[in-house]
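Ligand-bound model needed. adenosine-5'-triphosphate.
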Amino acid sequence: MFEEIVGTSPPLQSVLSRISKVAATDSNVLITGETGTGKELVARAIHKRSRRSSRAFVSVNCAAIPRDLIASELFGHEKGAFTGATQRRLGRFELAEGGTIFLDEVGELPAETQIALLRVLQEHEFERVGGTGSIRTNVRVIAATNRDLEAAITAGMFRSDLFYRLNVFPIEMPALRERREDIPLLVEYFIDRYARKAGKSFQTVNKRSLDLLQSYPWPGNIRELQNVIERSVIVCETENFSVDESWLSRQPRATEPNRELGLFKRLPSQEKAIIEAALSECGGRVYGPSGAAAKLGIPRPRGTAAKWLSKRHRTYASATSQHSGHSPCVTPKHAAGYVCSVCRFEWSYANMWRSRTRRHRTSSRW
Ligand SMILES: Nc1ncnc2c1ncn2[C@@H]1O[C@H](COP(=O)(O)OP(=O)(O)OP(=O)(O)O)[C@@H](O)[C@H]1O
Ligand SMILES: [Mg+2]
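Prediction:
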């Protein structure tokens, strides 16, 4: 197996051959492909096969970091650079010195960070937030995205000069439905992995289940297949491994339009269950293409879902700070299900995501 990358199909062979060619160089790599196709796995394989392999591989999900914090996260900050910067903090570029930095979902970087990243790629230097001196850096940059960056350039959301700097060596990950011949191998690999963890053993794979797994379109690609196998290993009590058919037929497409309208027309208790299920399926991830927002098909009124959600979170956070009369009654972490002791308003994830904060404020007594 090539660095834990399972598969022998021609589209995957071509990816593996590109990994072998580029690994030894110091060139920037841009990995594109749908969610769950293995972009991070490929980035790690490039690092492991490079002469930087003994140094750090630092992975940054650009969509998961709030926009106002991303520069400090990447480049670090000096003591006193902003409120709360009580001491100097090293950024991810400094932590990756001599190694590789993986910028996942690079298409989500705000404009000012794109400029700073361009400077790193061109001049190999950056400044910490609040710092005055430039810091030299020797870090290989591998970026990934499942956005169409060329369309983002046309829309004025992504700098073309940065795109060309990153796209020195493009690698495009095929969707799982474009390499169905790899599915039996992947199924076997994941059954083995999860059965060992669960202390179970399976002698055979149910033929009907395998046919189903091979014909399903896998919108969530290998991550989705992996999750289905993990779940099936847990519930399967016989030596003949099988998959519950309803799990596949009910899977929503990530980009199904107008799901939010359906979602938000439901009762708050149903909304909560649906949103919590989506969050749990996405490992608690809200933002980005594999986050709960995308899974639920939350529309993008301006820019990306991540932007939209972070705006909701800000509205929510400012409502929380309105509780200054008494101690803040909710925090984003444990808001769902909370009943405010002042106004008896019940918070749910849906309440957080919609603009109910205003109603909350007007209905409360402070
Ligand atoms: N060819 C493969 N063989 C074995 N496991 C794989 C393969 N491709 C992906 N995986 C597994 O699938 C999961 C998703 O892969 P990864 O995180 O690399 O996808 P991604 O393209 O970065 O997804 P996203 O766009 O959502 O960030 C991981 O657990 C990874 O180990
Ligand atoms: Mg990824």
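The radius of gyration is 23 Å.
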